[in-house]
Amino acid sequence: MVHVHDVVVVGAGPGGSATAHFLSARGVDVLLVDRATFPRDKTCGDGLTPRALRVLDSMGLLSEVRAHGFNIEAYEVVAPNGRATTAKISGAHEALVVPRLILDDLILRRAVDTGARFEPGVTVSRVEPNSSGITAHADDGRAFQGRIAVLATGAATGVLTRSGILPAQPRAMLAARAYFENLPNAQEPTFQLRFDNVPSPGYGWIFPTAERAANVGVGFFPRKGSGTAVRAFHRFVEHLPIGTQVGPVKGYPIRVDFLRSPTQTKNTLLVGEAAGLVNPLTGEGIDYALESGQIAAEHVVQGLTSGVHQTWLSDYDRLLRERFEKIFRFSEWIRDWYCRPALLNLLVPLANRRPELRQRLATIVLGEREPRGYGPANMAARLALYLVRNPRRAVQAHD
Using CA atoms, how far apart are residues 18 and 228, in angstroms rounded to an integer? Predict the structure, then answer.
């Protein structure tokens, strides 16, 4: 007789493993599958925001994750002209940089310890809903039965398109990163976002992994003439005082289309990047993966105890929109309106002259504060007032 699991989770990254943990902790029968054998590397910036750390804390993982991470205390933004501004990360949790090779394995092991069954080496090709739940079909002919599926497949869209969930390939960012050691200077405890020598709209980053080591990368929306992610990476790092590269440059896509992405279908929920949940301004996605996994698990537990039906499942989309839509709209506004070289050259000195504004914007971007009063028109008015009072800045920005 075929065993029917309560939930089949496809993808054992942070979103999938967090979902499996929160479900199994409530006594739900969970099968977690992934095409990889863990530990495995995942190309990423490796940054953990305060939001991510709060979820890891609720999983009982924070102290273990901290033991493997580099503590981050601030955000630094470097304009195209090289000027910089810095904002402290405040609150109960600061931030960390933890390589995904370590982080993902820690979260997966927590899910297994909680009671989830993990099956590696399973490449799911499609998920098929039926009258009683779902069937997850693997490339090798195996099929896994569940009452509900949770897809946490990251930027890979094959399962979504073959399952009829994603009607078209979304526009994605391109990114590339590499690890560096023996940096010439000790690294400050700072997430550094750089807008110099990168395609526009795009950014580069230096996230320290140790005192003299860092995850260095670049991400951008591809446009005609922008080239490949690896080429953009090499242009970016050739202007940096950088150390010894460790391992290859790895390119990857980033889905940031949550505002236009499906998040559920019949008997199936999507979490993390599978639902486009990567911040379109900063490229942060681990926090949204963990949070959406927690939301999905709570929603599934409620449904399993009250009876699963399509109307109930559709409420999941509403929960995600309530939690994330404002910050995604704000981040898209900033990216599309202000991430232009001339404007960034003006905004960085404005931020240095207005530390309270700088700190508010930092907390909004980190998701610690709602972006009320900081839409495009309001920001434009602030910038116009600044230029009226400081006309020389406009000239300097274009020099």
Answer: 33
**What are the phi and psi torsion angles at 377 (to 5°)?**
-65, -45
Instruction: Give me the CATH topology for the region 4-41+100-169+257-308.
Output: FAD/NAD(P)-binding domain (3.50.50)
Strand 268-270 with 264-265, pairing: antiparallel
| Residue extents of the structural domains in the chain | 4-41+100-169+257-308, 47-98+173-254, 331-398
Per-residue confidence of the chain (399 residues) as pLDDT tens digits?
Answer: 789 999 999 999 999 999 999 999 999 999 999 999 999 999 999 999 999 999 999 999 999 999 999 999 998 989 999 999 898 887 667 899 999 999 999 999 999 999 999 999 999 999 999 988 999 999 999 999 999 999 999 999 999 999 999 988 899 999 999 999 999 989 999 999 999 999 988 999 999 999 999 999 999 999 887 789 999 999 999 999 889 999 999 999 999 999 999 999 999 999 999 999 999 988 899 999 999 999 999 999 988 887 655 567 789 999 999 999 998 998 888 888 877 888 888 888 888 887 777 776 666 666 666 555 555 555 555 555 554 555 555 445 444
Contact 187, 76 (CB under 8 A): no
CATH number of 47-98+173-254: 3.30.9.10
Pairing of strands 74-78, 190-194: parallel
Complete edge-to-edge strand list for the sheet that includes strand 202-210 = 84-88, 74-78, 190-194, 202-210, 213-220, 173-181, 244-254
